[in-house]
Design a protein that fits this description.
single chain; 448 residues; mainly alpha; four-stranded antiparallel sheet; two-stranded antiparallel sheet; 46% helix; globular; binds (2R)-2-(alpha-D-glucopyranosyloxy)-3-hydroxypropanoic acid
Length: 448
């Protein structure tokens, strides 16, 4: 049962937050907790901005692409060195160790999921001045291609069309139980002295953030990447964290389709054949890498899409929202989508038998032993994953279910505020306050 949401008022609140978090050239995710520019956050922000301030969206994307590495990588953070409320800060990454790092711009040395082509397309689609929209696409096109080439050639030596990540922070779903076993095998040999700043930023509520042991491993993995001077070829040989990630690969696939749309708008056909080869590779290997049954059909609910650990050569069989994300790719068979729908209505996720008050999808199955209702990526509800699942449901024609998620998200945010994530039982807002991508995506959800 839904409460009628006053969409006009919700839109106003969302825009107010986007305005408050705007710092002149881009939007910060949340004051104090995340005071810099984050890569995939900026893409979600741009999608929201495309409905009410095209110029700000253009500025946000351009500022991000200015930080692009010479090998095409878009770093996951572009630092504002006037701000000191976040650890690790820019100097920790020592990006000068790599010949590819940009000159005079402080960034991290890792990347994040590619939502960029989608965001850039929104800026064209929602721009009333199509010449201006085209001009922006023309300005940014090569950068987009270069980022995807970086992913296709530096993050996929298997030639599978699927992307390998080297760090949980690259996944965007940083503290998911998916990484637990791999992290357990990694024992930090040394650790720099550091002080976490995130706990204070969430008013001391340590339980909503990763625990210290996990945080130490996050830091250790960066220390280790520094030893390899961020050289992907060498990292690929013996780095202990190498995972083919479903969410990342799905976004790569969807974004490749958007790059083709952009190329067609620009009458720029020379790269399309190459992008098509990436698309075919993803289509040919998605089941092989992510679906333990291969091409066979699942007979029960327990077999699903799982991330693949390259080091261990095995699937990571954890029931999380990542398993549902392939629906957004549009490349999986209807048969698996139907199993997903049964899951969504099943108590693994908070459907009819769950306790969830509104039908939205939490970050892990609620009956799993790793489920934690308040902890970052280990149970709470996130708006961006629900946004992807809703769009996936629409692709497959499940309009009613998509509408339920839309209404669920709007009701959740209307009642519980514009937060980073939410407790799946009570709806209580958690993590960052006035969180920008929640605001931005709610704008898109209201309009679409
Ligand atoms: C590390 C900014 C980012 C998001 C990630 C989210 C969280 C950072 C952190 O915040 O990660 O990148 O310090 O926890 O997990 O998806 O981009 O909003």
């Amino acid at each position: 049962m839904y409460i009628l949401v006053d969409k006009r008022n919700l839109l106003k609140r969302a825009i107010e937050i986007m305005n408050k978090n705007w710092v002149g050239t881009y939007t910060i995710p949340s004051k104090r907790l995340y005071p810099h520019q984050w890569s995939w956050d900026s893409c979600f922000h741009t999608i929201g901005l495309s409905y009410f301030n095209i110029n700000r969206g253009i500025s946000e994307m351009k500022n991000l692409f200015k930080s692009q590495w010479k090998n095409g990588m878009i770093p996951h953070i572009v630092f504002d060195n006037n701000s000191n409320s976040y650890f690790p800060s820019s100097d920790f990454y020592e990006i000068d160790r790599s010949d590819n790092s940009p000159i005079g711009i402080d960034t991290s040395g890792i990347t994040q999921p590619p939502v960029h082509a989608i965001a850039c397309y929104y800026l064209y689609q929602n721009n009333a001045d199509k010449n201006n929209g085209k001009k922006f696409l023309r300005d940014i096109y090569k950068n987009l291609i270069n980022f995807h080439r970086y992913l296709a050639y530096n993050r996929d030596p298997e030639n599978s069309g699927l992307i390998t990540i080297f760090h949980p922070w690259e996944s965007g779903t940083d503290n998911s139980p998916i990484w637990d076993e791999t992290l357990k095998r990694i024992v930090p040999q040394y650790l720099p002295k550091f002080q976490r700043l995130d706990i204070e930023a969430v008013d001391g509520k340590a339980y909503v953030r990763p625990d210290n042991e996990t945080y130490n491993k996050f830091i250790y993995l960066i220390e280790l990447m520094k030893k390899y001077n961020y050289n992907e070829k060498e990292l690929y040989q013996d780095f202990p964290f190498k995972i083919k990630d479903i969410l990342f690969s799905t976004l790569f696939y969807v974004s490749n389709k958007y790059i083709i749309k952009i190329a067609q708008i620009l009458n720029q056909y020379e790269d399309i054949a190459e992008i098509n080869t990436w698309l075919r590779k993803t289509e040919n290997n998605f089941y092989k890498y992510f679906y333990p049954l291969g091409e066979n059909y699942a007979r029960n609910l327990s077999t699903f899409f799982y991330n693949y650990d390259i080091v261990k050569k095995d699937w990571i069989r954890k029931i999380t929202v990542t398993s549902l994300i392939p629906i957004y790719s549009g490349l999986i068979r209807k048969r698996e989508v139907e199993i997903m729908l049964r899951w969504m209505n099943h108590s693994n996720f908070c459907g009819q038998e769950g306790f969830c008050k509104v039908p939205v999808i939490p970050s892990t199955g609620i009956h799993e032993n790793y489920f934690q209702e308040n902890t970052y990526w280990r149970g709470p509800i996130w708006v961006n994953t629900n946004w992807m699942i809703r769009l996936g449901l629409l692709k497959y024609g499940y309009f009613e279910k998509a509408e339920q998620i839309k209404n669920g998200i709007l009701e959740l945010i209307d009642r519980c505020g514009i937060r980073e994530y939410y407790n799946p039982f009570t709806g209580r807002g958690l993590g960052g306050k006035n969180f920008s991508w929640t605001a931005a995506l709610v704008i898109d959800i209201i309009y679409s």
